[in-house]
Amino acid sequence: MAETIRADTNPFVRKIESVALFDLSDSERAALVGLPLHVAEYETGQDIVVEHDRPNRCFAVLSGIAATYKTTEDGRRQVTAYHVPGDVPDFQSLHLEVLDFSICAVAPLRIGFVPHEALRALFAAEPRLGDAFWRTTLIEGSLAREWMLNNGRRESYPRMAHLFCELMIRLEMVGLAAGNSCGLPLTQYELGDALGITSVHVNRILKELRESGLITLGGGRLTIHDWDALAKAGEFDPTYLHLRHTDG
């Protein structure tokens, strides 16, 4: 199903506006909105692409949350990134022939597929949008470095605090968080796969965060009650997100 989504409600446009180093012109905004989105829906746990695929299209997350992951030969999974509305998780496929990762839905997911040729035409017609997409790719690299530090060197408590701070800001960027509260339908098992700890350990850390008065997580919703304390606990510095208002 091909679908056009209004610019003022399109999280993809809002994401580009949040990271581009320029204000979108009317023609650039119209070009983004005019991309031929073939909308599809996925259930929780369903793969969109899998390692070794050779896709001829990219997709933008329209609603829900997706996860990039890799697995060991014995089936253990490591989530390497979460993707919120506006993200284009497999943009690398425009230039890399074979995917070296898989992407699945971790909540009911609505996405829009865009053929590679449509993106190439977009960048030819609106070169600055090519720069913006390149910037989003560089920011993904920055996120990967931060996740590596977070999971490799921080203890479990600050590790989880850091993740919650990141997701809150990223959802706020696309208008999906307000008052330090956002939808976050992640299970303890999924959080464990992202943080490299067991679901039992996740439960213990969530209890500690809750009893410290920092967060509430339940019913698919995260609320941060004390942002400053949570950010301090997670050693959270948003510089790596390269938001326009933090770039100077």
Task: Provide a compact summary of the structure.
The chain is of the alpha+beta class.
Written overview of the protein:
By secondary structure, the protein is an alpha+beta fold. It folds into two domains: 2-144, Jelly Rolls; 154-246, Orthogonal Bundle (Arc Repressor Mutant, subunit A). It contains eight helices and twelve strands. A hairpin with a 2-residue loop joins strand 11 (215-218) and strand 12. Helix 5 (156-173) packs across helix 8 (227-233) and helix 6 crosses helix 7 (199-211). The radius of gyration is 18 Å and the shape is globular. The N and C termini lie far apart (41 Å).
CATH architecture classification name of the largest domain: Sandwich
How far apart are the termini? Answer: 41 Å
Tally of discrete structural domains: 2
Average the pLDDT over all residues and give the rounded result: 92
Helix content: 40-55%
Order of helices and strands: EHHEEEEEEEHHHEEHHEEH
Let me know the CATH homologous superfamily of the largest domain.
Jelly Rolls
Strand runs, count: 12
Assembly status: single chain
The CATH class of the largest domain is: Mainly Beta
Based on CA inertia axes, which overall geometry fits? globular
How many separate helices?
8
Query: What is the fold named in CATH at topology level of the largest domain?
Result: Jelly Rolls
- Strand order, sheet with most strands: 1-2-8-4
- Please give the largest β-sheet: 4 strands, antiparallel
Kindly name the structural category. alpha+beta
- Uncertain segments: none
- Using only C-alpha atoms, the radius of gyration works out to 18 Å
**Beta-strand share of residues:** 15-25%
